[in-house]
Amino acid sequence: MVRARTKQKKSARTASASETTTTSSPPIPSLLSKAQDLIVQCDYPLARKFTERVLAREDATPAEKNQAKEMLAVVLLEIGDVDSAKDIFLTLVPPHTEAPSPPPPSAYLYLAQLTDDDPHVALAHYQSAIDLLQTQLKGKSISTGNTSEEDDTEIKGNIVRAYLGMVEIWMDPEYDLCVDPAASTTCDTLLSHALQIDPQNLETLQTLASVCLSQEKPDEALLALRTFPPPPAQDRDDGAAPDPRSHALLLLDALPIQTRIARAKLLLECGAHPDALSLLEGVLAADDTNIEGWYLMGWTWWLLAERKKEGDDVDATVELGVDGRELEWQDMARDARDYLETCQTLHASQGHPDVPLLEHVKELVGALDAFGIQPSPVEEEDSNDEEWEEVSDDDEDEDVEMA
């Protein structure tokens, strides 16, 4: 009897210890929140550990495990394990037996971008994401009676990006879809849907400009590139209206640099050289090591110099130098050479892989050599430093003598 009671007490102690361990485990929502924070901080190895802890927990709900799966797939994608990431995303959508209902639209968006071997499958993924997101949008409107602009911005943005992703697939020369007779009208329809969601989305308007140029409609392309949301109404003490141009520049500066680079190329195709120069100045102000930025600045000034040399009209906004003097074609060509040589130097120092760009830069610099255009002279250092040192020495000697 005594032994039996002793055994029972031992079992009770073991059970109590087990309960204490379970109770002391961190809550799953806390683990998921921490994993998300680590992903934002780009600490992918540690984020992976947190998601794997959630997946190993028996008390995690199916919804929590699916959330952890998606986070793990994002982590794997960021560290370069694309195949494993894609496999996990596929477990979150039908026909996988463990896929949640409804599946997360983000999984379809990722799969669309990871499917490069079959454009039709990628398009289907994008469409599935759009259908789910629109259902979410309508469901929120029905349940609340109205939609909050702040809450819906992310959903609308994802819908727009999905439409733009579909347009990119239809226009991609690597796929046969770009020569399909329905390509042009399909792109128009997709862009129309995107603009219905957000009529003044800059990336949508930029994609519209690209489509217009492919359809040989440069005027419509330029109109799209010069369309911006109006500045917000503000109460100003001086009663002056907000400056639309300054507001447009702020919006452009908020775009990713590669988006601005692509926009500059479209502006050059439209012949809008001043717009391109203004945009590229913002790019180099944000990143003065961007090789494409230096190249396009040089190429733009080259084009302007060529037009000026041939007697064509050049926009008045680029004909005046910083001193107010009218620029001659040689001045523009010299500016072109300065930008191109900086591009060439950065290309070498960074070991940039874009060989055709470098070859074009060398070709342009060679042509400038043939025209007798030399780089701008290096400004000589002011001799004030030497004079300052001499004065400083004298002052020091005088101070010693006074002491």
Average pLDDT metric: 87
- Taken in chain order, the helices and strands follow as HHHHHHHHHHHHHHHHHH
SS class: mainly alpha
Number of helical stretches of at least 4 residues? 18
Q: Shape, please?
A: elongated
Q: What is the share of helical residues?
A: over 70%
Number of strands: 0
> Gyration radius, to the nearest Å?
31 Å
Would you kindly provide a written description of the structure presented here, covering whatever features stand out?
Mean pLDDT is 87; it is low at 1-22, 385-393 and 395-403. It is elongated, with a radius of gyration of 31 Å. It is 70% helix and 0% strand. The longest helix is centred in the N-terminal third of the chain and has 26 residues, at 119-144. The chain has helices spanning 2-24, 28-40, 44-56, 62-78, 82-90, 105-114, 119-144, 149-171, 183-197, 202-214, 218-225, 244-253, 257-269, 273-286, 291-309, 329-350, 355-370, 384-402. It contains 18 helices and no strands. With 403 residues, it is an all-alpha fold.
Short description:
The chain is 70% helix and 0% strand. The protein is an all-alpha fold and 403 residues long.
Tag the structure with descriptive keywords:
single chain; mainly alpha; 18 helices; 0% strand
Q: How does the SSE layout of this entry go?
A:
Elements: H1 2-24, H2 28-40, H3 44-56, H4 62-78, H5 82-90, H6 105-114, H7 119-144, H8 149-171, H9 183-197, H10 202-214, H11 218-225, H12 244-253, H13 257-269, H14 273-286, H15 291-309, H16 329-350, H17 355-370, H18 384-402
Helix pairs in contact: 2-3, 2-4, 3-4, 4-5, 5-6, 6-7, 7-8, 8-9, 8-10, 9-10, 10-11, 10-13, 11-13, 13-14, 13-15, 14-15, 15-16, 16-17
